Amino acid sequence: MPEIPLVPVHWRLPAHPTSVRRARHAVAESLPDVCRPHLADDMGLLTSELVTNAIRHGACREDEGLIELVLWPADGHYWLAVSDPGTVKPRLARPDTDSESGRGLLLVDSLAAAWTVRPRPSRGTSVIAGLSLQPAG
User: Which Pfam families has this protein been placed in (predicted)?
Assistant: First the structure.
């Protein structure tokens, strides 16, 4: 009999700055105890960056003011997808030293084992990032 996978954890949060902390806490609490020592800090940073970007750049209007998060284990990684109703495809930037923003995806790129941007089937964009379940080192 095949191993039955875990059901992904899913949240819908308002596109408001207070959701960043809520999302970070919810994701950390959903990680299995055995994974927390080596995943919690990096997953918290990924969550903060991706949710912040979704709120700033993807939430278009008040009536569409929700972002969605999905967390699931697969293929030796824990994956986080953060989705918003926006149509702008996030891209890696190279801000100059005087810029006060634009470094979020650079952080995601350095932390994640892999990440990508995908259009949603109906409307919107998802950024998906994965962290290895194996501790580094």
Answer: HATPase_c_2 (PF13581)
The per-residue pLDDT for range 80-98, each reduced to its tens digit, is 999 999 887 877 767 666 6
Q: What is the pTM of this model?
A: 0.87
**Coil vs helix vs strand at 54:** helix
Q: Which of 112, 57, 123, 48 is nearest to 90 (CA)?
A: 57
User: Would you tell me how many other CB atoms lie within 10 Å of the CB of residue 28?
Assistant: 15
Contact, 18 vs 2, CB < 8 A? no
Which ranges of the chain does DSSP label H, i.e. alpha helix? Answer: 18-30, 36-53, 104-111
CB 129 within 8 A of CB 79: yes
What does DSSP assign to residue 33?
A: T
Options 3.30.565.10, 3.30.70.580, 3.40.50.10190, 3.30.470.20; which CATH number does 9-132 get? 3.30.565.10
Burial of 34 (0-12, 13-18, 19+ CB in 10 A): exposed
